Every structure is written in structure tokens, then in C-alpha cells.
Amino acid sequence: MNIRHFPMTREISLLVLVYLYVPVVVLVGYSFNANRTATVWSHASLDWYARILANPSIQSAAKNSLVLALCAATAATVIALLAALATARAFPSRDGVEAVLKMPLILPEIVVAVATLMLFVALGVQLGLGAMILAHTAFCIPFAYLPIRARIEGLNQGYGEAAQDLYANRFRSFRRVTLPLLWPGIMAGFTLAFVTSLDDFLTSFFLSGPGTTTLPVYIFSSIKAGITPEINAISTVMLVISVLLVSLSFFLGRLRR
Amino acid sequence: MTGSPALRRLGLLTPALVTIAVLVGVPLTLLFWISLLQKGGSSGVDWASVPSLANYIRLVWEEDFDGTMILNTSYLVILLRSILQAAVTTGLSLLFGLPVALWMAGLSRGQRDLMLLLITIPFWTNLLVRNYAWLIILREDGWFSQMVDFISPVGPIQLLYNDLAVVIGLTYSFLPFMILPLYAVFEKFDWRLLEAAHDLGAPRSRAIRRVLIPIAMPGIAAGSLLVFIPCLGAFVTPALLGGGKTLMLGNIIQMQFGASRNWPFGATLAVVLLSLMLIAMVTMAIWRNRRVR
Amino acid sequence: MTDSSAVSITAVSKSFGRGSAAVRVLEDVSVEIGQREFFTLLGPSGCGKTTLLRLIAGFETADQGRIAIEGQDVTQAPPFRRPVNTVFQNYALFPHLTVEQNVGFALVEQQMPAAQIRARVGESLEMVRMQSYARRRPAELSGGQQQRVALARALAPRPKVLLLDEPLSALDLKLRKEMQIELKLLQAEAGITFLFVTHDQEEALTLSDRVAVMQGGRILQMGAPREIYETPTHRFVADFIGDINLIEAEALPGNTIRLIGGAQITHPHQAHGRVTLAIRPERARIVALDASHLQARVVHTAYLGTALVHKLALADGSTFLLRQSDLDGAQPSLGSQIGLSLPADSLRVLVQ
Lengths: 257, 293, 352
Fold this sequence. Notes:
Number of domains of chain B: 2
Membrane topology (chain B): Multi-pass membrane protein
Radius of gyration of chain B: 24 Å
Strand order of the largest sheet of chain B: 1-2
Low-confidence stretches of chain C: none
Organism (chain B): Albidovulum marisflavi
Transmembrane segments (chain B): 12-34, 75-102, 114-137, 164-186, 211-241, 265-287
Oligomer: heterotrimer
Helix content of chain C: 10-25%
Domain ABC transmembrane type-1 (chain B): 79-286
Mean pLDDT of chain C: 89
Low-confidence stretches of chain B: none
Largest sheet of chain C: 6 strands, mixed
Helix content of chain B: over 70%
Largest interface: A-B, 89 and 82 residues
InterPro entries (chain B): MetI-like, MetI-like_sf
């Protein structure tokens, strides 16, 4: 008897995989459907992709989403890298500091989103891209932090000492040894932060001002207005981008140390 | 790059701590404060109003035309439904997540990595898009309905806009949160312990119940919290799949910031959500502490 | 301190932790290490040997005392300003760099011209016979090869002193023996002072010009391997290095020592009352019962290939090991009573 074998787990797992992927496959499939009534299949076509590419509101929402994700992920990664360098070594209040860093992960997003909305309005901060970048930076920090932290954890503490023993001062040791060794972790963290920001709907929903919709916000309001094949196409594009980026990050995280 | 290690550490941590304090800590504090104020003004808050618990009272009682307070269950029902939906989703996630995690732990290294990627990918893809996919499947002239109709013509089936649709969507959204912590436990599990249990006379099912499950408890607890908390605050799933009849906390919070424009009451509902989350976390912590002892 | 010292450590103390939780790991340690000497710090884990090495490398700072390298005070200098290099226990080869980039690391920091770096890296790799692996990454090398690269990397900048922190402990026995010989040859070739840290007494004796035995943050005894082995001054040193028999005895006036069973030996000593006598297993000899200093019963005999080791029980119940290298001679049978002679010149009277 194989001790690790549990009856039915294989069947259930495959069922779960089907459950996880069938909706995605259906969505992607219908995005290539030529028929106007989104759910009746006629024949394959790329019409809807051509349409969304030509749609100025989608273009502008896509641009906003990219700028937002790029700014927020960059800021969050820099902030998270610095924090991860600090928490690499144990110190008395480290657990507390890490709990604070991970707070945006645990808190229900809708609560933080409406709270931030009220703060910005109370302070007179203009809603829009700037406001979204600030809020996204905050909740992207843990996503950037965790892969970097995991990488540092796996790093031999001795490398820094070895570099200093070989005449590199702190700065040079950071540049020549620590940074290159952390690089896959930094890139993985950046990618995850980027995806998180790109895919975010709730925070953007509350903080986007007039003329600064992001793609998810655009998709949501389109769905509310009625299901169209364009939504299938634009959703598929978002899916593909996320999957590519997450696979990249997964690969980076597994790079040999 | 000089100074004591403590000072350098503080310098490195400052950007992160300040960002989170300003963009999470301060807003949450403000949220509590606003939940005590009244609505009004163009911004939705009457800043000059006297702080009171009026909004919290409104959750349960309503002032009648003649001034008497009468019980108003509409919010309580939504609250209860949110908790129930979250609980059912957590239960379903455990039911399906446990076998998946167990199966994954028994795979070869390469297969495990692949499964891990397959489980992780939906978690990172757009929540909105994933729920939208269910909308396509479940709606009246949708894919599922067509499939059923093809097999036996019963006419269109309406699967959308009910509690089941929401539970399907929520489970779909948060199942990976259950599988990953469970897998983390089983991956490290020393399988010789099960052999030891057999050796000591426990048959398969008893060994699983007395050895495997107790050791997996931290993972089960973590996974349950990770599913339960976001379910409580879910907005997208009930908004897309629940329709108007199966509102959850997230939806009525959003309404206060949209059409109703009653920010203080919205803040109150948000505080309620936070409190529920805290209660769930504390309950879990107490329960786990009791188990350890 | 003399100018001829490569490393000069004067009254160095070091504690870790603060207040009541502070642990003293080095207690008033002073050592002079000569030019081109192969000097070994030997002791069990936690004796302070690695801390002393890290103080010299600059990874820790001494609480008190002074550390100088070739006469230059480096007590407060950071590691990157000290003319010493370290071979780390786990090698700490940079995994993102190739072998040659690893070896050239320090040279780049010293802003050596590229052509010169290339030449020096080549020389260093040649010294450890790793030229053909220059383009590999550390992960593609075996443990022994990584060890050689670590050596080449530490030697490339031509340090005044090479510090070796248990560098052989990760290797299997056979490789370790090979590397011991190579290290010795390498030191002769490089002409550099080696400061070696180990807990392996055999390794220390094989390699070193001088050994310092440490325990509890102090140096107990310092000297040539033979001196340490044959004339240990402390019970701990005697016990730690090789097998030794420790016998309780009584020191009498007039350079006489009385053993268990009443036999007396003439041996110079300054002690009085109860003392511990130390004698190596190979130094005691089997003699006739009536000519013996001690009588013992054979409890167990182990055959080691080149010798026999007899485990004996003395009259007071304590154990005595006897190593018999002469396999052709008469061998005592199990359970028999034999007589032992303890030659006065192989006996040591120990302080505790």
C-alpha cells in the first residue's frame, strides 16, 4: 500500500481543475465567436479584438491601467526591497514590523478602499490617477515584499561577509553581491505587484476620477450595461497578461540560488 | 552607509512603515471617526455633527413615523447572509481543497510544481474577469443552460442571481487560498508518521483522523481564515452573480458611497465588517491555542 | 609585540549579548603568530576559536584588547580594510558569479587593471589546479572543487594572513586527507601565514607548525604539535588530544608519586597530595606482575590492523587503555591479570 495514496483525491483534484479552468476556457472561446449575441456560437473570428483595439475608451483605460501598475509596482518594489533588507536579520520587534507590512493583505479591500476615499476627499486630494497610484502602492507592498523576503531568507548570510572580506565596502558589497543575488526575487516581487495593481478593481472603482478609468473599472461598468462580445475579448486579454506575468514570476522565484 | 545597525534598520523600514501608516492606518482611524458622524454636505459627511452611535443603532432599529423605535431586520439579514455565505464557501473550499492538497503532496516534484502553478494562476488572474466568466456560463441563455437544453430540452434555466450562484462564484474566487496553506502543511508532512500509526494498530481512517488531520490543523485554520475573510467583504461576486436579491455586506457598503451617499453609515458597515473579521481571527487564535495545550 | 609577528593579539576579550544575558566568549586572549607560520586554533565547538578568527577578519569587534596585522593596528578596521582573507566553512562562493569572477572579486575591488586581474586569477587557479573550471559556476562544482576555488579566491589578493574557518569539515574523510596535504603544500608555495581553525585534533597535529588549544574562551596551551601531544599541561588538553589514560595518584615529597596499589614511581613534580597522572596508551608496557607499577585485568581487546588496543580495568575500577603495536609478541588473554610498567619519561603530572 502506498502510504501517500488517498482514494478519490485524484478524481476530486481533476474535478477541481476542471472547475477552475472551464470558465476561463469558455470565456476565451467566446471571445473568438463572431456572433453578436455573445453566447451563440457561429464561427471563429478576431473581429472583437480588432474592435477593442480601435475603441478609444478602452485605449485610454488600458493606458491608465499600465501607467498605474508601472508606478505603483515600482514604488512598492523599492519600498519593499528596503524593508526586506532591514528584516533579513532578526531584531526584537521584527514580527510586529512584518505584521504591519502584511496588513494590506489581510484587511478586506473594500474597507481600506472606502476609508482611503474618505481620507482623500477630506484632505482635498484630487481623485484620479495620482490617488490610485498612492493607494495601489500601499496594497502592493506585501506582494513585492514576500518574494524578496523569501529570496533573502534563502541567501547565505555569509555572502555579505565574504564580499567584505574581499575588500568590498558595504555599498560595493550590496551592488556586486546582494543586489544580483536578490534580483530574481526583486523581479518576481515587481511582477506580482504589477499584476496585482493591473487586476485591481475595487480600489480603482472608488478612487478613479472622471476620465481616469482603468481597464477593470471599464469592464465592470460594461458588464453592468450588458454583456457584449467586446467584454469577452478584453477580459481574455487581461487574463493572458496576468497568466504570462505570473508564470514569469513563478519561474523567477524558482531560479537557482 | 554608517551608523548603528538599529538606526540603519529604522532608515530602511521608514518608507514602508510610513506608506502603510498613511495609506492604511490613517484611513482606518478616520473610518472609525466618520462612523460616529452624520451624513450631509456635498462630500457625504457632516463634519460638524456630534459624534454618536446613531449609525450603529440604525443597523438594528429604525425610527417609525411616530418616533418609536421598531426592529429593522433588513441589514441584519444581509449581515447574516454574508456570514452564512462565507461559512458555506469556507466549508466547500475545505471539502474540495483538502483532497487536492493531499493529492498534490503525493506527486513527483515536477508534477507538484505544475499543479502549484495551475492552482496559483487563477488566484492571480483578474477576479472580475473570473466572475464574469461564470456570468457567461450561468446566465439564462448561457453555456450551461445550452448544454442542458441540448441533452434534454427543458427550456432556459436561470441559475444566476441566487445564493447558489454567489457560493459558486465565491468558492471559485477563493479556493486557492485554501489549497495553498494545506499543501504547505502536507508537503512538509513526515509520511512515516502514518506508517508509525499503522504500526501502532491504527487502521487507515483512524490514522488519518488521529495523526494527519491534527498535524494539518494549522493549515486548515489558516486556509479557513484566508477564505472566510475575503468572502465576508466580497463585492464583485455578489454584484455580478447575486443580482439585487442576494446582497452582501460589500454591496451595501458600496451603495452608501454610491447612490445612497451616506458615508457615515457606509463607514459604520465597514467597521462592522472589520469587527467580524477580527472576531473570526480571534476565535481561530483562541481555538488553536486551546488545541496546542 | 614584535615586528616579526604576522598577527599579534593582545589581551583581547569579547562578549555577546548585553547585561545579564551577556556571554563571555573570549577571555583575555593573547597570541603572537609568526611570519609564514601555519598556526591552528584547536578546540571543541563553543570554545571561542571561531570568534577569535572573526575578530581578526573584522566581522566582529573586540570589547577589549588590540589586534595588529604585521604591526599595523586593525582593532577597529572594517573587514574590507584588513589585509587578511578568509576561507569560509561553507566556502561562501558567490553563486551568481563564475569561478574566475569569484577569484577576481577582490582584485576588482582593489582596482587592479583588467589584464593584471586576468593574469592573477589564472595564477591563483593554477595553484589549486582549477584552471579548466574558470567558466563554471560554483553550483556545477563538487565539494572538493569548491574548496579549491575558495582557497584560490582568498589567496588571489595575496593577503598577509589567510584565515581558514574549518574549511575541511564539509568534505568526506578521504578528500579531507588529500586536501590536508594540499593545504600544507599550498602554504609553502604561497609563503603566507595560515591561521587555521578546527575541532579536529588529528588535523591540527598533522598540519600545524604551532597549535593553540582553546577552551571556554581561553588558550590553555600553545606549542608545537609534538609538545602539545607529549607534554600536555592541562587535563583538558591531554584528554582532548588523542587517547590518554588519566590515573588518580598521590604526590609525595621527594619527587615520588604513589600509585593505586601502593607502587611508587620517581618523577619530578611540584605538586602535593592528590594529582592526576597522564600516560598515552602506546607508552605503557606489559611486564611481569612482580615488576609492575600497576596491575590490571584485560576486559576487552580490539584489533585495529596495525595494533591491538586492550581495555583494562585497574584495581580501583577505572579503565586503562593499552595500545600494543608489537603484534608478534605475547598477547594477554581476556580476563587475565597483567602487570603494567609506566616509564617515568612518558608520564605527565597534570593540573586540573
